[in-house]
């Protein structure tokens, strides 16, 4: 007996060019579709925000004498120079973009996450192997990821230059800043491409890339606060030394682009030397018997979260030390400008500039702690996507207990991070200004009062994951939108109802402002409801 099967109406894709790069266009289209929300978000954020720094500075410092005093105060504060870089000029362009110096590092974070998400994460989840079994070339995925990220970096540079030019700033300086910002993104995209080849895990690949970024930031900070030599060992230092609006150094683009090209070439070379799903660093075999600490769900969660919590703690420690050292000089920088006092008061500060600066600083620390909390919640999503959660839940571990083990670190981790930063801020400020014990209490209280607001973000991430795990990564978009509203609300006077959506504006504005229980209780109630909804949804739905 002969069975006849009907031919399926499948047409193989037309392949053009080298076989190793076949299907790159199809992969690029797929990645653009998957990043149709996240990619435009960070492109618009980095492209538009620099001009708001300039406009806010221009509204506060209306005379050249005030700009000169501002620049002189920056130079006299090593802590501020370490955080933001030196001020190379005294015109409105140089001074306005001085505080946009961290954008060179922030765009690095965005591109690192983007490249690793579309390379190593695809291999870790097995999707790359599935796609690679078709007529897709070996280098198609990496090429598509780098192409999409590079286009995003170029768009950021162009958009930043155009918006600065529209603000009335000189053309050459605007182009220089846009080129440096886009160049920073290209460099760190290529670095992420290398780290994606190193380990079999996306978390380790991200950790290596962020460690490299942290080292570059430290070299730049120490170099700028000192004699400037170490800054030239860091790509971030190269970007700052482009000096927009202050005798631009266009040749800085040469090392930036050279490093980007060489790193990209190295990534392709390393990719060609390993198998799909493997890494260049061999995985070490674990012990034959598990430690007693891994006998429960909480022990396993601690094993998964401890490395990330330690890395974040180091970052908060360093930031707290820098911010504490900058508080004493904030009065010299801002002077008696009533406009500045009004802006800081709207952001949540008091009339006393130093207290307002602490409030402003810990508000951004709370946003950073929310980022850690989201990553801790999304560890649940990662465990489920890689099917490790199914193995754990097949034992004597209930869903509520399993989710709670990870939520423990998502909720207590921000408490640890903010405590470290608050103690550092208060300790350094007290050592410089006197009243050590009082200043430590002020710094710690100002930091910990933000915890309920962070927990609201934790609840949002958990609710989305529990109800619709497919959309769990959108929690990053929620945090980004709140950051933009928080920043623009202070500068341009957005409607109050829109500003009130951001939880970070509601806690009491310590130190200096009177304590209020009602906003704390409301934030805790909202966070509890959101977390409860997320856990209930996780218990009732099927695993993906």
List the defining traits of the structure above.
single chain; 544 residues; mainly alpha; disordered N terminus
The proportion of residues in beta strands is under 5%
- Uncertain runs are 1-17, 347-351
Helix content: over 70%
Number of helices: 24
Q: State the end-to-end CA separation.
A: 42 Å
Strand count, sense and closure of the main sheet? none
Number of strands: 0
Oligomeric description of these chains: single chain
Q: SSE order in H/E notation?
A: HHHHHHHHHHHHHHHHHHHHHHHH
Description:
There is one protein chain. By secondary structure, the chain is mainly alpha-helical. Helix 1 packs across helix 9, helix 6 packs antiparallel against helix 11 and helix 14 packs parallel to helix 19. The longest helix is centred in the last third of the chain and has 35 residues. The protein is globular, with a radius of gyration of 25 Å. The N terminus is likely disordered.
List the helices and strands and how they pair.
Elements: H1 24-34, H2 38-60, H3 64-75, H4 78-84, H5 92-98, H6 103-117, H7 120-124, H8 127-132, H9 140-166, H10 171-195, H11 202-225, H12 235-240, H13 253-271, H14 297-327, H15 330-334, H16 338-347, H17 353-385, H18 388-393, H19 399-433, H20 436-448, H21 451-467, H22 474-492, H23 496-499, H24 517-540
